[in-house]
Design goal:
By secondary structure, this protein is of the alpha+beta class. Strands 7, 8, 9, 10, 13, 14, 15, 16 and 17 form a nine-stranded mixed sheet that branches. It has a four-stranded antiparallel sheet with strand order 3-2-5-6. A hairpin with an 8-residue loop joins strand 8 and strand 9. The longest helix is centred in the first third of the chain and has 9 residues. The radius of gyration is 22 Å and the shape is elongated. The N and C termini lie far apart (about 60 Å). The N terminus is likely disordered.
């Protein structure tokens, strides 16, 4: 379908005020890997942040990151060295910084590591497990999450019945659920028993509960769902509930050797 191009100045957007320039102050802290936006809000409202010599308590104040002088507790705010982690998420954890229901979060896997603020790249729902990346590099996160540029994700899924012969073809054709197109880019049978089976499913984008919703359309329930790889990066033998830094070789293979996907050179682990 050909898109209709409206003449400049037409439509509601012509009456919309221009978006102010710069970046919101709380987003500066997030982009630099210093704190989440929520944590930054608390720092700013507590009067601990100065911009160009004056205390600012408005988290949404837009500033020019390249020109403004920002101090936190009297110290200049600077980008943290980039950190790239792989985590083996267990079932039962949610992938948020904090949960209003008091459930354990993915950050439990980072206890005792003494890391600056990092964020999960995408999500695995509470009942899902396996490989998830965490970083303070927002450029890297955006590249990974973009379905046009990011790598495919591979999952091993235990289902509650044996697959029909035409299932994998139908999964590739996809369905429309709640206005969203859900499909796979690859699927195959790994192994089967008398009542259930393990499937390998590959996605090039991940919508909310993508695999569970897709399989439910074919009357299949999910018993376990484990993400085992992101592009060429495999979960391997990383113990459940633990995290480790990506090696330079892993990071290079994940990005195809393209350093433009990274904010800067990753931090090197301390020797010794």
């Amino acid at each position: 379908m050909r898109k209709t191009v409206k003449p400049a100045g037409s439509g509601a957007s012509a009456h919309r005020p221009p978006k102010p320039g710069g970046v919101s102050l709380n987003r500066v802290f997030s982009k630099l890997g210093i704190a989440s936006r929520g944590a930054a809000d608390d720092l700013i409202r507590a009067g601990r942040v100065r911009v160009d010599g004056r205390i600012v308590q408005q988290p949404d104040l837009r500033i020019d990151m390249d020109r403004a002088q920002i101090l936190l507790d009297g110290h200049p705010v600077a980008a943290q060295a980039p950190i790239y982690l792989m985590v083996n998420k267990p079932r039962g954890l949610v992938t948020t910084l904090s949960d209003p229901e008091g459930r354990d979060t993915i950050y439990r896997c980072l206890d005792g590591l003494g890391l600056p603020h990092v964020s999960p790249v995408g999500r695995l729902d509470k009942a899902s497990e396996g490989l998830i990346l965490m970083t303070n590099d927002t450029r890297f996160s955006q590249w990974l999450l973009d379905p046009e540029t990011g790598p495919e994700k591979t999952y091993h899924v235990q289902v509650d019945r044996l697959p029909a012969p035409d299932l994998f073809e139908r999964l590739a054709q996809g369905i429309v659920d709640k206005g969203e197109v859900l499909r796979t880019t690859g699927a195959r049978l790994l192994r089967s028993g008398t009542r259930n089976a393990w499937l390998e499913i590959v996605l090039d984008e991940g919508r909310n509960r993508h695999i569970r919703r897709l399989l439910a359309a074919f009357d299949m329930g999910v018993l376990r769902l484990v993400r085992v790889a992101i592009g060429p990066l495999a979960l391997g033998d990383l113990p459940k509930g633990t995290a480790r830094r990506l090696t330079p070789l892993e990071l290079s293979s994940l990005t195809g050797g393209n350093s433009s996907h990274l904010s800067q050179e990753p931090a090197k682990p301390a020797s010794g």
